[in-house]
Amino acid sequence: MRLYLALILLLAGPGSARAGDLAVSVRTTAGRPVADAVVMVRPQAGVPRGPIRFPWPYRMAQKSMQFAPFVLIAPVGADVSFPNLDLVLHHVYSFSSAKTFELKLYGHDETRNVHFDKPGVVAVGCNIHDGMVGFIRVVDTPYAAKTDAAGEAVIHDLPAGAAAVIVWHPYLKAPRNEAARDVTLTAAALRLNVAADLRTPPMRRGGY
Ligand SMILES: [Cu+2]
Fold first, then answer.
1. How big is the CA angle at 198 (ends 195 and 204), to the nearest 5 degrees?
2. Ion ligand 1 residue ranges (Cβ < 5 Å)
């Protein structure tokens, strides 16, 4: 597989981000912002012990015949809820090795929970509606964030030292749909610009 991925490191100007922060900008090779990329940092010195908590809900709803959000970051050990906000029945499942599960047909305003105990990528589908696709990236680092509509993600309060920065997107043309870069984190804020070559999404409308 041809890999086209350029990672360019630039030191941010003073005041543009807090010390110890990593700002990542992901754009297509044509310059369009890429939302829903997951940025993960693995410091060589390891991550703090204890449970990982993120400020967003561990929740993937079914709404307007789509999974919302399209990409969810959840820590290992999370219980993720799958509320059905549509008026039709959904049948949510995954065959991914990080988590295989099946939530048989359930209806409006019902919900189900799934426990995620292994890091990895969980592709989620609906047995009834082939066009529904979502991804849960189960992570074992507290230093993770998802790019917004502007293709931007910021990870705060990183420890200084050597670290690997991993950028994953379900449609990134790269082995395992991810690319890694070794960086040295210092007290200075760091900015990483990622040019990502994406596959055409198989079902999803709109594209990137
Ligand atoms: Cu469905």
1. 135
2. 90, 126, 128-129
